[in-house]
């Protein structure tokens, strides 16, 4: 087993990787909750704020739940980064696009056309390539420092 | 998509990227005064991005708006090339093209 394999198999790595995935679940939940808040207040014309600012949704409990979910996502992401390289975290984090698409379909009942699904898969693939090259750069920097 | 909606999407990501950069400079700042100022500005940018997104979600599907976030990666890469002179590897240029194709497919859906 190589050094990198043993690093990937360590309980600390697995725990941190799970935390990254959990943070992305919170992030996707925050997006879905924001959409629920946006839909619930879309017909409200009483707000003094222009619609495009999004501030007319402040009265919606969904939006405040979205704020809590976003803070949970930020907190778990920071904890995970204590024991995980940013490049690796970024690769795992790109799964959020799949989570958001799944949430849009399952919770919000949105229709995801084949073109949109392929577009999302292209985005995830591109992000994984960028993140892997970032991870390689970090590994080379670590070796140079050692 | 209307030009105004496209402008709002770009503004949403620009405020988010500005918030991320300010958060990083706040963490690295040596003086407490400038650290607090940058941190407050970062929170303001991220809050603006948060609510601008909700404004977009009142008009569009979440599965349509969210993938545009990936275009921030391209914006960041172009900005570092233009302003910092950083070179991009062939692999990253290829990845950016794949992401751009993905965003184009979603916007056409």
Brief write-up:
In chain A, about 75% of the residues lie in helices and about 0% in strands. By secondary structure, chain A is mainly α. Chain A has one domain (about 5-145).
Description:
The complex is a heterodimer of chains A (146) and B (109). Chain A is mainly alpha-helical. In chain A, 75% of the residues lie in helices and 0% in strands. The longest helix of chain A has 32 residues, at 114-145. Chain A is globular and about 60 Å long. In chain A, 35% of the residues are buried. The model of chain A has no long low-confidence stretch (mean pLDDT 80). With 109 residues, chain B is mainly α. Chain B has two domains: 1-60; 61-109. Chain B has helices spanning 3-28, 32-57, 62-65, 71-84, 90-108. In chain B, helix 1 (3-28) packs antiparallel against helix 2. The A-B interface holds A 31-32, 34-35, 37-39, 41-42, 51-55, 57, 63, 67, 70, 97, 100-101, 103-105, 108, 110, 112-113, 115-116, 118-127, 129-130, 133 and B 4, 8, 50-58, 61-64, 66-67, 70, 73, 89, 91-92, 94-99, 101-109.
The secondary structure category of chain A is mainly alpha
Intertermini distance of chain B: 11 Å
Largest sheet of chain B: none
- Share of residues in helices of chain B: over 70%
Main sheet overview of chain A:
none
Note the overall shape of chain A. globular
Low-confidence segments of chain B, given as residue ranges, are none
The structure class of chain B reads mainly alpha
Written as H for each helix and E for each strand, in order along the chain, the element string of chain B is HHHHH
Comma- or semicolon-separated keywords:
heterodimer, A: 146 residues, mainly alpha, 6 helices, 0% strand, globular, B: 109 residues, 2 domains, flat
């Amino acid at each position: 087993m190589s050094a990198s394999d043993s690093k990937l198999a360590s309980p600390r790595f697995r725990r941190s990787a799970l935390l990254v995935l959990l943070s992305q679940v919170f992030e996707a939940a925050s997006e879905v909750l924001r959409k629920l808040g946006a839909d619930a207040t879309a017909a409200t014309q009483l707000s003094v704020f222009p619609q495009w600012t999004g501030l007319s949704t402040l009265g919606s409990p969904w939006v405040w739940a979205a704020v809590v979910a976003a803070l949970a996502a930020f907190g778990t992401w920071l904890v995970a980064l204590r024991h995980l390289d940013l490049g690796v975290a970024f690769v795992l984090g790109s799964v959020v696009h799949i989570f958001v698409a799944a949430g849009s379909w399952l919770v919000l009942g949105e229709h995801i056309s084949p073109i949109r699904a392929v577009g999302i898969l292209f985005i995830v693939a591109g992000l994984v390539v960028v993140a892997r090259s970032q991870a390689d750069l970090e590994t080379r920097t670590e070796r140079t420092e050692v | 998509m209307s030009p105004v909606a496209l402008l709002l999407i770009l503004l949403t990501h620009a405020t988010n990227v500005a918030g991320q950069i300010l958060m990083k400079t706040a963490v690295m700042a040596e003086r407490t005064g400038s650290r607090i100022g940058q941190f407050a500005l970062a929170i303001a940018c991220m809050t603006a991005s948060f609510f601008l997104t909700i404004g977009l979600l009142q008009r569009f599907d979440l599965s349509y708006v969210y993938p545009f976030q990936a275009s921030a990666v391209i914006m960041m890469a172009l900005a570092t090339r233009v302003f910092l002179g950083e070179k991009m590897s062939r692999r990253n240029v290829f990845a950016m093209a794949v992401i751009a194709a993905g965003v184009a497919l979603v916007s056409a859906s």
